[in-house]
Amino acid sequence: MFSGLMLNTWVAATAVAVIAGVTGFFAVLRGSTFAAHAIPNGAFAGAAGASLLGLNAFVGLAVFSVAGALGIAGLSRRARPDVATALTFVMMLGIGALFVSWSTEYAQEAYSLLFGEVFGVSTDEVLPIVVLGATSIVAIIVMFRPLMLASAMPEVAEARGVSPRRMELGFLLVMALATSMTVPVVGALLMFSLMIGPAAAARSLTARPMLAMALSVVIALITVWIGIAVSYQSNWPLGFFVGVIGAAFFLFARVYAAIARSARGLQAPPAA
Amino acid sequence: MLRYLFEPGFFGSGPVHVALAVGTVIALTSAVVGVFTVTRGQSFAGHALADIGTTGGSGAFLIGVNQFWGYLAFGAGAAAIMELIGIQRRRGRDVATGVVLGAGLGLAALFLYLGTQYSSTTGASFTLLFGSMFVITSSTVPILITSALLALATVVVLARVLLLTSLSPDIAAARGVPVRAVGAAYLMALAVSVALSAVIIGAVLSTALLIGPAATALRVAKGPVRAMAVAAGIGVAATWLGIVLAYDSFYWPPAHRGWPVSFFVVTLIVGCYLVTYLRPRRERQDVVRQAPDTEQVCSPA
Amino acid sequence: MSASLLRLDGVGVRLGGREILDDVSFSIEAGEFTGLIGPNGAGKTTLLRVILGLQPVTHGSVLIDGAPRAARDASIGYVPQKLSIEPDMPLRVRDVVSLGVDGNKFGIRLPSRARREIVDDMLTAVGAQRYANARVGELSGGEQQRVMIAHALISRPRLLLLDEPLANLDISSEQGIVSVLARLARAERIAVLLSAHDMNPLMPVMDRIVYVAAGRVAVGRTDEVVQPEVLSRLYGQHVDVIRVHGRILVVAAPQGPTGSEEVEGIDDEQAPAEGADEQAPVEGASVVR
Asked: How far apart are CA B116 and CA B124, in angstroms?
C-alpha cells in the first residue's frame, strides 16, 4: 500500500484533504454548502467542453468553476443565495450536457471526473496539486480576518470597511481554484463530501474558529487516509468511504454536542 | 412560421406524445411544489433529493428492480432522515442536507462501481445526471402521473398552512397547526415529486424545473395563487418548447444527432428568469405613499 | 362569580437551569387593556408564550374562561414580536389578513366576494387599505404591524396578545398603532395584553399594568404599581421612579450581572461544547422608561 506508485496517491490526497478542510470550514460557516456542491459539479461540465475543443481538461475545469463562482456571486446580489446557486448550477450542467452530446468519447472520463481517480495520480500531477493547495491556504490566510468578520457578522464587517459581497466573491473564487485542481484527483462529488462532512463535524465540536478549522483539516485527513487504505484493500471506490466516514463523523459530533449540552443543563430560553 | 418550429412528423411521433404528456405533468407539479420550496429556503434540499434519488436508481438497477422504485425509496428515506436530524434554522439544515447528500453520492459511487462489475455501464453516469426523456415505458406512465398528481395535491391542500407557517411559525402553532408534521408532510411531497422528475428527466432538469419557474414567478407575481399559476405556466411552456426544439435540432451541427432536451429546457428557464431583471426596478406603485401614519391619539379613557 | 377571561395562578417557568418566571398570578377581564411592562430579559415574551400554549409551565395554571386552554382555541389572537419576512414571500397584505380567518385549515378555498369584503373591512379598520395589494415583505415596520393586527383581529378573538409591537417604531407610527388598537378593542370589547419596555405611549389607554421584572410581577393600576417600593421589591434592588413632563422613568441603579437572556452565538442551534462565551448582560443603569 505504501509503494512508490501509491506514494503519489497519499501525497495528493493529503494535499486535497488540507485544502478541503480549510475551504470547507468557511463553506460551512457561511452556509455555502450548496455552492460547495455546485461549483465542482459545474466544473465537471467545463471539463467536457474542454475535451471537446481538444484542450486540457484543467482549462475547462478552471473556466467553468470560475464562471460558476461569478454566476453565484452575481445572482446572489439580487436573489436568494440558494436560488442563485441552483440556477447557476443547472445552467452549467445544461451546457455540459450540450458539450457531451457533441462529443463521442467522453463517458469514461466523466466517471473519473465525478468520482475520482486518486489511484491513478501520476507524479507530474502531484506537484500542481500541492502547489495549488499551498496557494489556496495562503489566500485563505491573507483573507482570514476580513473573511471571518464578513462571515460571522456582516453588518459589523461593513462598518469596518470590509465588503461582505467582495468577500463572498473572493471566497467563491478560492473555492473555484481549489476545485479545479482537486476534481481530477478526488472527483467532483467527492470533493464536496470532503469539504462539508469534516467541517460540519468540527463545528459541532467547537465554536473557536481556529480550532474548528484545524479540526476540519484533521478530520478530513483521517477520513481520506482511512478511505484510501480501505479502498486499496477492497477496490471499492474512495468516494463511497469518504461520504460514509464523513457522515459518521458528523453524526458522532452532533451526538457528542447534544450530550455535552444536556450535561451542562443548557437549553436556550427565549429572549424575554 | 409554425412549420419552421415544428419539423414534419413531430405531432405524429409516439414517443413525443408520451414525452409531452409526462413532461407536462412533471413540469406542473415541480413548478407548484417549487414555489414553496423556494419560499421555505429549501432549494438545496430539493436538489439533494434529486441526486439521492439518482443513487437509489443506480441501486435498484443493481439489484434488478425497476429504477423508479429505487428513486422513490431513496428519496423518501433521505427526506425522513433530513426531517429526523430536524434542524430548524436554514444554515444548519443545509449543512445536514449536505452531509446526507455526501453519503448518498458515496453510495452512488459504490453502486455504479458494483454495476460495472456486472455490465459495461460507462454511460450510466450521464443518464443518471441527465435522464432520458424519450425513453419511458408505457407501463410506468400511469404510476408516474398518479404519483406526481398526488404530490401536487398534497402541496395544494397544505398551501395555506404552509404560508401561515412561513409567515410566523408561532402564530401557526398557537392556532393549532402541527407545524413539525406539516413540514414533514411537505418534505415527503417534495421528495416524491423530485424523485419522479429525476428518474425521467435526470437530476439536473429536475432541479431546474423545481427552482427556476418558481423563482421567476416569485419575482413577478405578488399573491400565492398567481405565483403558482405563473410558475406552472413557465415550467410547462419551457418543457414543451424544449421538447420541440430538441426534436427540431436533429439535423443541427455538429453531431447531427440532435441537441439534448435538457439543454434547451434549462436555457429557456434560466433565460426566462434573467429576463425579469430587465424591467426597471419598479417603484412601489401599489403603495400610495403619504406622510407617515398620523392618527389622532386617543384621549385617555 | 363568572370566570375571568384569562387567569394565571402561580405560574412558574424554569428553562436552562433558570427561573424565567416565578409565581406569576393575575387575571384579565373582557375588554380590559393591560400593559405587560418590564425591561428586556424580564420574561415578557415567555409569559405571552405561556398564555398561547407555546411554552409549557413548570408550576401553576393558565385558565381561559375558567378552563385550561383547548388545542385549537381561536379566542386568542397573537401579534408576534418580529416577523422575518423574505421579500419574495408570495403574500399580499390582503392574503395575510385572509390567512387570519382560516390559515390554519387544510384544503382549498375558492375566492368569494364575502371573504373579500370581510378582509377589506378589516383593512380599512386598521388603516391598511392603501397598501392592500402590496407584498407584505415590502412594507415598513409600522405598516407590517397594522397588517398583523388585522390578521389577528379578523378571527374575532376575545383576547389579543401583542409582543413588543412598539419597539423599532418611530413616534408617530407608535401613536398610530396604539390608537388603532385602543379603538378597535373598545369597539369589539376585545381584551388586550400588550408587552412593552416603555409604558409611556400606553399611558392614555392602559387600564391596568402587569409589571414584570426578574421573572416576578406586580399587578394593579399604574399609579399603584409604578412606585419605588413596589418596583424595588420586584427588581430585587433599589429602583427610583421619576415623573417628569408627564412621563414616567424607572431607573435601576448599576449592579452586578443579573443573568438574563442567553446570548445567541454566531450561528444556529449548535451550542459550542467548549470555549462557550456566555455573557450575562449587565443590567447596569438601565433606564426603563
From this structure: 9
